[in-house]
Design a protein that fits this description.
There is one protein chain. The protein is of the alpha+beta class and about 240 residues long. The protein has one domain: Cytochrome Bc1 Complex, Chain D, domain 2 (Orthogonal Bundle). Strand 7 and strand 8 form a beta hairpin. The longest helix is centred in the last third of the chain and has 14 residues. The termini are far apart. About 0% of the residues have low confidence.
């Protein structure tokens, strides 16, 4: 008498560990000056992706958001509100090639996001128009500059990115920079100098890996590591 047996092999799943992100400079003990260039450096360590000190972390995937608050009593609310915001579009921008050619406030190869927002703000078809240009590529919109296509992004992702750019470049007291190292400029000293700067560094790891690792395990999901520090102004 024959016997039919089915053998099922369970695939092991490895838990994806969250990355650790640390702002090395400036330190929380630093006091920064008005209207000055402030260098910064960030360190990232992720059990799956590697370490920034060994050039195992992509430079453009590490983000620094710089926010000026006119009064230090606003810090707690700002950080709470920030934790509830949808930062997914910014993360998509960091893992694509967006920050290779564009920055928030300054011109790189292409125009700054600030200039893009100024040109398209208030136009009813801005989101659809810009989304098509990003996915298909374009030439002649900003002189002779050519923007390459981005077929790796889905149309709904790109629309979310465009909405994020148009909305978040309305705030003159916020800047965001991609890079493990860089610098930003503080504003002119106001009449009532009670303000502080809040720096938030973040990195989104690459999560699940395909094919499975050599031990047969698959890492699941992506995780975000971040650190925020508050910088006081020198008198």
């Amino acid at each position: 008498m024959g016997c039919s047996c089915a053998v099922v092999f369970a695939q092991k799943t490895a838990e994806n560990s969250p990355p650790e992100v640390a702002i090395i400079t400036p330190s929380t003990k630093s006091k920064i000056n008005w209207n000055s260039i402030i260098p910064y450096s960030i360190q990232v360590s992720d059990p799956e992706d590697g370490k920034s000190e060994y050039n195992e972390i992509s430079n453009n995937e590490v983000l620094l958001v710089i926010k000026y608050l006119p009064d230090s009593t606003q810090v707690k609310k700002y950080l709470l509100d920030r934790s509830k915001m949808n930062h997914q579009p910014l993360l998509w921008m960091s893992t694509s090639t967006c920050f290779n050619c564009h920055a928030a406030r300054t011109k790189l190869i292409g125009p700054s996001y600030d200039l893009v927002a100024q040109r398209y703000r208030g136009q009813s078809n801005a989101v659809d128009s810009l989304a098509k240009k990003i996915i298909n590529g374009s030439t002649g919109t900003w002189g002779d500059l050519k923007m390459p296509p981005h077929p790796d992004l889905k149309i709904e992702q790109v629309k979310e990115i465009v909405r994020w750019i148009l909305k978040n470049n309305d705030d003159p007291d916020q800047n965001y920079i991609a890079g493990i190292e860089g610098a930003f400029r503080t504003k002119e000293k106001p009449k009532d100098p009670k303000g502080v700067y809040v720096l938030t560094a973040s990195y989104t790891d690459h999560g699940a890996k395909n094919p499975p690792q050599s031990d047969g395990m698959i890492r699941q999901g992506t995780k975000v590591g971040q650190q925020s520090i508050v910088l006081k102004m020198a008198e």
